[in-house]
Amino acid sequence: MDDEEIQLNRGFLEVLYDFEGGGISGGRGSQSMGEVRPGLNAYWDDFSEENWDRNLMLSRGDLVSFAVEQAGGSRFVANIVHALIGGLDEIPETDLEGDLENYEDVTVFAGFEPDDEEGLTFFRALSCRYAEGSPLRKRIDDYLAEVARPDTGV
Question: Is 70 exposed, middle or buried (0-12, 13-18, 19+ CB in 10 A)?
Answer without folding.
Answer: buried
